[in-house]
């Protein structure tokens, strides 16, 4: 039987990014992709990402956190989800800073700068073709030309590619609403250039300290916000010398502040995390899970 049967969960959101947080640190268990898909069904708790806290594996860390998209695929990073995990973990204890281990590395979190805000150190961005990753024939990342749709359709081309522990392709456009992301998103997400698929962002640079964006997420589709995409987009814009290293990001679900810190290249993301309700998983959800 799944470790989730009869287990409690917290339904949260990170500026509209639908998050479920499960704390399995009191068990020796983890979950399977089939468990993640079972939770995402309409009979379960529909979400964009599932954040599973497990027993710490490294000394000095508060938990190992596994991240699942609603299609059951695992991801190395989830910025909005980490703010939700931080809020839940701060609420349950007396700490002012937390360290989580994820597939992509260590993530430090702290409350602030305002009472309802949380800051997450998302680590350092990676730009190499093997880091994203890109298919080897596209190793020259400057030459990526992606044309999607009929020739008279708007052509999305020359994306910036960045890994924040998960793959991101960012297309710079004048109008982020001018493209049918629900149509083009899955085509680009699954393009052979991205052997691990990719998160696809449309971004418009408003000024040197402000970007508006929206994202088709790998494994989850169109979401109201993608924190790691906001980090990747802010870094890519600064790298193109089109913005400062601290940028205000406007996403469909809300606002984030991203700082690509000059001293150590770490990317700090600040934003809210909302608690919605708590519940317990009905064991019937997992009846067909092996
Ligand atoms: N879909 C992403 C994971 C969730 C990222 C997003 N929700 C965030 O806040 O960073 C991926 O497969 O890489």
TrEMBL record:
The active site is at residues 78, 226. Pathway: Amino-acid biosynthesis; L-lysine biosynthesis via DAP pathway; DL-2,6-diaminopimelate from LL-2,6-diaminopimelate: step 1/1. Its EC number is 5.1.1.7. One of its GO terms (biological process) is lysine biosynthetic process via diaminopimelate. It is found in: Cytoplasm. It catalyses: (2S,6S)-2,6-diaminopimelate = meso-2,6-diaminopimelate. Keywords: Amino-acid biosynthesis, Cytoplasm, Isomerase, Lysine biosynthesis. It is an enzyme of class 5 (isomerase). The keyword Nuclease does not apply. The record marks 168, 217 as: Could be important to modulate the pK values of the two catalytic cysteine residues. Substrate binds at residues 17, 49, 69, 79-80, 166, 199, 217-218, 227-228. One of its GO terms (molecular function) is diaminopimelate epimerase activity. GO terms for cellular component: cytosol. Its main location: cytoplasm. Gene3D superfamilies: Diaminopimelate Epimerase, Chain A, domain 1 (3.10.310.10). Belongs to the diaminopimelate epimerase family. Catalyzes the stereoinversion of LL-2,6-diaminopimelate (L,L-DAP) to meso-diaminopimelate (meso-DAP), a precursor of L-lysine and an essential component of the bacterial peptidoglycan. Homodimer. This is Diaminopimelate epimerase. It comes from Tardiphaga robiniae. The gene is dapF.
């Amino acid at each position: 039987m799944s470790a989730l049967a009869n287990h409690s969960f917290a339904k949260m959101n990170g500026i509209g990014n639908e998050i479920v947080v499960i704390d399995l640190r009191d068990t020796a268990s983890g979950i399977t992709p089939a468990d993640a898909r079972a939770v995402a069904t309409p009979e379960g708790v529909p979400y964009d990402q599932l954040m599973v806290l497990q027993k710490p594996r490294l000394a000095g860390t508060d938990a190992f956190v596994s991240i699942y998209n609603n299609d059951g695929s695992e991801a190395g990073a989830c910025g909005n989800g980490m703010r939700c995990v931080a809020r839940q973990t701060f609420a349950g204890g007396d700490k002012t800073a937390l360290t989580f281990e994820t597939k992509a590395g260590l993530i430090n979190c702290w409350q602030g700068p305002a009472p309802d805000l949380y800051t997450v150190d998302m680590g350092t961005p990676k730009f190499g073709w093997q880091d994203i990753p890109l298919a080897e024939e596209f190793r020259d990342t400057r030459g990526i030309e992606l044309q999607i749709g009929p020739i008279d359709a708007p052509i999305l081309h020359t994306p910036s590619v960045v890994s924040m522990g998960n793959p991101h392709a960012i297309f710079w456009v004048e109008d982020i609403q001018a493209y049918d992301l629900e149509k083009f998103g899955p085509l680009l997400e699954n393009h052979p250039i991205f052997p691990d698929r990719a998160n696809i962002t449309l971004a418009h640079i408003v000024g040197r300290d402000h970007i508006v964006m929206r994202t088709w997420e790998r494994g989850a589709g169109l979401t109201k916000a993608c924190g790691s995409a906001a980090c990747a987009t802010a870094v890519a814009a600064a790298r193109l010398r089109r913005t400062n290293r601290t940028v205000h990001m406007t996403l469909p679900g809300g606002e984030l502040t991203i700082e690509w810190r000059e001293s150590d290249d770490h990317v700090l993301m600040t934003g809210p995390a909302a608690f919605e309700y708590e519940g317990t998983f009905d064991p019937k959800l997992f009846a067909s899970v092996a």
